[in-house]
Amino acid sequence: MIQKIIDKSLSGARISEEEALALLESRELLKVGRAAAAARQRLVPGGDITFVIDRNINYTNFCITGCDFCAFHRPLGSDEGYLLSREEIFAKIDETVELGGTGIMMQGGLHPELGIDYYEELFGAIKERYDITIHSLSPPEIYHIAKVSRLPLDEAVARLRDAGLDSLPGGGAEILVNGVRRRLSPKKIDADTWLSVMRAAHEAGLKSTATMMFGSVETLADRVEHLRRVRELQDETGGFRAFIPWTFQETNTELEGTASSSGIDYLMTLAVSRIYLDNVPSIQASWVTQGLKVAQVSLMFGANDMGSTMIEENVVAAAGVSYRVGKDELVAAIRAAGRRPVQRDHAYNEIDYPV
To answer: What is the DSSP string of 189-218?
Structure first.
């Protein structure tokens, strides 16, 4: 049965949800990996591996949702909470530009007092000072901004776009199954709302990525349902540039002791994602959660992108994982895997070929 599914994939045919689940449940890691590598060649031919130089700016950790899987959030009024000043944000962008960065990814908690005016003024000030991509605000943030500002979702998206927002990261997806979301993040938007924000963004001309955080309380069938919903929206809008599967990090969270994902599980999930998501061009390796060695191996399992050098990252680090990789290390790792490193921007335009 597994070989038939693999042969179907190798022929270029679309596999079903039942077939994706069978692959995930199988122990045929190398067979599935080879099929994923072939799928990658169909979608992104050649041996180039892309990466981007940017910075995560986690502008606030004040958040009203208090998700059980998150070690980063703090309630409003906490002595451990913060909201970065504009000067602090500019200083981080200055350093990013000095290091060759082409974009920033601003993400934060759902601050109860920040309306759309805050983001319009901030993005406008950034665009006035810097020639840099603003790849920022996850769907939960955008929905929250619209709600706080008492705006229709499409109007909020359009105003953020006009203020300087260039594209959206895929954060806040976790698993797009409401039963799982009620256990992980009962106060966060549900799966349909996450997808509606992405649909609104795509219809407004904003591209995005999609993510999946797995290895917490979900089943393998839940992972496939997540992939199904991403693939269906991509069929509808074509707005996803990349898919980024990453593993739940349990340390310092309410779910500590429940993590169920290994390096093998990560590679299998990534490979099945590549095979199933036949309409999403790029699959990104997650060295941030897996480390550079596993990320190198993932290049043989369908990944074609190593993501960001991530000059700064605080959310995953709060859960006890603090892998750090500079541009030179990332380039060396790609070369060591027998591939050519290519620096890109957030639109996946190639901009440099490191010597």
So the answer is: --HHHHHHHHHHHHHTT-EEEEEEEESSS-
